[in-house]
Write a structure and sequence with these properties.
30 strands, globular, mainly beta
Length: about 300
């Protein structure tokens, strides 16, 4: 039973014997701001913490008896890993990756090159993963092969998805608005994710004006009969570009399959090829200022 936040010190690895063999549980009434937190977060450092890894355990956040608690894990360290961890019943977010410290101090440097993979997240009151970035520090991470279920907020909510690889995640039974909300895509990928049942939008991808991003091979379904928008791409600034290909969308007769909007950008250019959209009211909606690019195919050439 945990009664105080466990600091994650830099250049260390915290690893259990097995996912079910090592159980960390928040004590009744502890109401911790976090069960695990980076030392730079707790110490209110202006710079990111050194590399840390958290692996192979179960974290029971026990929200029913901790109604004032915060997050299960707060990570404010670069080159860090969260892998093979089962997190259940966080009062707020299961994993919060942030550029802010406990007292709100912003990072003055970057917090990049980490990995969040092969975790099981159940019944968090907020988001399964929340990437909080009031500046431009939390970029270029991998978010891969996670199972996220039954969130009260978004399945995945990202203030900053620049340089991120968001691949192979299964997100289902989301009570919040979005299964996956990714802001500030810049050279990012949202590929091969499996989404079942969401509030209003399955995937929101907000694309920056530089570089380009890929949204490929995702499977987005509404099995419970709700409508909403399955995949929405918007521009943030400049001339935003994205490849949206080979996605599979299926509803129960309601909603919009693909929705492309310029947003606050000067233009949004999208290649939209090979997408299967079925059993929705509107297959594809294209707003003013959106350029549909057929893509390039040159047979017999590399």
């Amino acid at each position: 039973m945990v009664t105080e936040t466990i600091p994650l010190l830099g250049n260390r690895s915290y690893q259990g014997r097995s996912r079910t063999g090592t159980v960390i549980q928040q004590a009744d009434g502890a109401n911790l701001p976090a069960i695990f937190a980076s030392d730079s977060y707790l110490n209110n450092s202006p710079t990111t913490g050194l590399a840390v890894s958290l692996r192979t355990m179960t974290i029971k956040a026990n929200k029913e008896t901790n109604p004032e608690a915060g997050d299960a894990i707060v990570m404010r360290s670069w080159q860090s890993f969260i892998e093979d961890v089962q997190i259940s019943d966080a009062n707020r977010h299961a994993i919060r990756l942030t550029n802010l410290s406990a007292n709100g101090t912003e990072l003055t440097n970057t917090q990049v090159n980490g990995r969040i993979a092969e975790n099981q997240i159940n019944r968090s009151g907020g988001s399964g993963l929340f990437v909080e970035d009031t500046g431009n520090s939390v970029t270029d991470w991998s978010l891969e092969d996670n199972y996220i279920a039954g969130t009260g907020g978004d399945g995945i909510e990202m203030d900053n998805a620049a340089g991120w690889m968001i691949n192979g995640n299964h997100i289902y039974s989301v009570d919040g608005d979005h299964a996956l909300y990714a802001n500030r895509l810049y050279g990012s990928s949202i590929n091969d994710n499996y989404i079942e049942d969401f509030g209003t939008i399955g995937v929101v991808a907000r694309v920056q004006g530089g570089a380009a991003s890929t949204i490929i091979g995702n499977r987005i379904f509404q099995n419970a009969g709700q409508g909403g928008t399955f995949l929405q791409v918007l521009g943030n600034y400049g001339n935003a570009k994205a490849a949206v290909n080979s996605n599979t969308i299926r509803g129960r007769g309601l909603g919009i399959g693909l929705d492309y909007q310029r947003g606050s950008a000067d233009s949004l250019e999208v290649t939209s090829n090979g997408n299967l959209v079925s059993e929705v009211e509107v297959d594809r909606q294209v707003g003013e200022g959106v350029i549909l690019n057929p893509g390039v195919l040159r047979l017999g050439q590399p």
